[in-house]
Amino acid sequence: MKRTDIRLIFENKEAYSGNEITVCGWIRTLRSSNAIGFIEINDGSCFKNLQVVFEAEKFENFKEVTTYTVGSAIICKGILKLTPEAKQPFELSATDIELEGLADLSYPLQKKKHSPEFLRTIPHLRGRANTFSAVFRMRSELAFALHSFFRSRGFMYVHTPLITTGDAEGAGEMFRLAPVGGKEFFGQPAYLTVSGQLEGESMAMAFGKIYTFGPTFRAENSNTARHAAEFWMIEPEMAFADLEDDMELAEAMIKYVLNHILTNCKDELEFLNRFYDSELIERLNTVANSEFGRITYTEAVDVLMKHNDEFEYKVFWGCDLATEHERYLTEKIYKKPLFVTDYPKEIKAFYMRLNDDGKTVAAVDALVPGVGEIIGGSQREERLDLLEAKINEVMDNPETYSRYLDLRRYGGTKHAGFGLGFERLLMYVTGISNIRDVLPYPRTAGNAY
Ligand code: 4AD
Ligand code: MG
């Protein structure tokens, strides 16, 4: 069967005007009188619906078609007619409507508005609701834009293992992996990865500029709107690069993907702007065209301490910044995306490069309004003696990092990279405030629908 995507018609209606075409999709609404009926059909190829008109005098089974329910799958054949005077730019004047699958009257997406909490309990159906139609299409566009950005800069895409034997972050948030009822499958304890960085670094030492893009897993027991147990991360790694190069890359990446989304997801953005965040489009446009702020952790702490009465967790030098602090900085003080650099070594991962002050490391977090941290990165410790001492000092199983140390032994160089939380970025570009609503099947502490 030759079917036409509704998206193609919206992109170039003149090309289809007067043609007989077939569209396949799901009924969003159906209304009818004795003589004529209207179906809004959505096929998932774009945000918009196509209006299908069917008339009693042309349809033997007119009465039957009027009984098709919301959610039913249908195949419509007809002639595309431009309707410049009407609300919608064109309609399909149907010659045949075939029922593929009737939706039972218990179909939950009958009424227009449901709470996000309810919709999370039906992840298998919510893709057919407007919000998720927009968000999941944007998820795909965003992934494509990221690949195309890194490709345009000569980065190689590498796949790092999801099953690992070491803790890449040293934060002890790994899920343990074992066969059901079986023994240690790999002959040693194995875990789901929290980050592809360490393997990514080894690939960068062979290919210069690489990135990973895949799922990562964290057993963080934090029940927040921005933590998931399974999320996707993009991790670029560059040999011969320092923290400045890292920030330049991160800023260019975010601007590139924002421009892509602004150009390619107009209908989705308009919908989200209308129903979720009335400043969304304006904000994305501004950010795509302005410089990100840059401050050190020490400067951030100085600024925040002046507002300690407004925080649940009081700020002091040496504390980890919480979401409330990150959002205060980027939303209230600087009012734009922000790089915060040079954190105390005690609160950051073992692999970050020690600064000359001996107290801070060459770390960078990127913070954005509405979400807080979306990127965590650093220049890596390339000095063998310092790295070895640090691993021996803070890691549980120092011997598992011998290969990582080898990279410093055999032609090491300064290098840097970061991890971008894909869902955090998607929250930012959609204005959706809960990570559970940008993952098709969210997994969070206590929930795996
Ligand atoms: O800051 P993180 O922990 O950094 C790393 O994992 C480094 N290995 C990255 C690197 O340098 N290659 O995580 C990176 C980003 C965070 O900034 C955040 O956006 C996201 O991953 N992230 C999460 N997103 C959703 N749910 C969680 N539980 C997340 N934990 C981190
Ligand atoms: Mg982080």
Description:
It is a single chain. This protein is of the alpha+beta class and 449 residues long. The protein has 2 domains: 102 residues, Nucleic acid-binding proteins (OB fold (Dihydrolipoamide Acetyltransferase, E2P)); 312 residues, BirA Bifunctional Protein, domain 2. 32% of the residues lie in helices and 26% in strands. The protein has 14 helices and 18 strands. The strands form 4 sheets. An 8-stranded mixed sheet has the order 6-10-11-16-15-14-13-12. It has a 5-stranded mixed barrel with strand order 1-2-3-5-4. The longest helix has 23 residues. The mean pLDDT is 96. 4-amino-1,4-dioxobutan-2-aminium adenosine-5'-monophosphate (4AD) binds next to strand 11, strand 15, strand 16 and helix 14.
Hey, roughly how much beta strand do the residues contain? 25-35%
Poorly predicted ranges: none
Bound molecules: 4-amino-1,4-dioxobutan-2-aminium adenosine-5'-monophosphate, magnesium ion
- The number of domains is 2
Q: What is the CATH fold-level name of the largest domain?
A: BirA Bifunctional Protein, domain 2
Q: Number of DSSP helices?
A: 14
Rounded mean pLDDT is 96
* CA distance, first residue to last residue: 35 Å
**Under the CATH scheme, which class of the largest domain?**
Alpha Beta
**Radius of gyration, whole Å:** 26 Å
**What is the fourth-level CATH superfamily of the largest domain?**
Bira Bifunctional Protein, Domain 2
Instruction: Trace the largest sheet across and list its strands.
Output: 6-10-11-16-15-14-13-12
What's the total number of strands?
18
Please state the overall shape, judged from the principal axes of the Cα atoms. Answer: elongated
Q: How many strands, what sense, and barrel or not for the largest sheet?
A: 8 strands, mixed
Instruction: Supply the CATH architecture of the largest domain.
Output: 2-Layer Sandwich
Helix/strand structural class: alpha+beta
Fraction of residues in helix: 25-40%
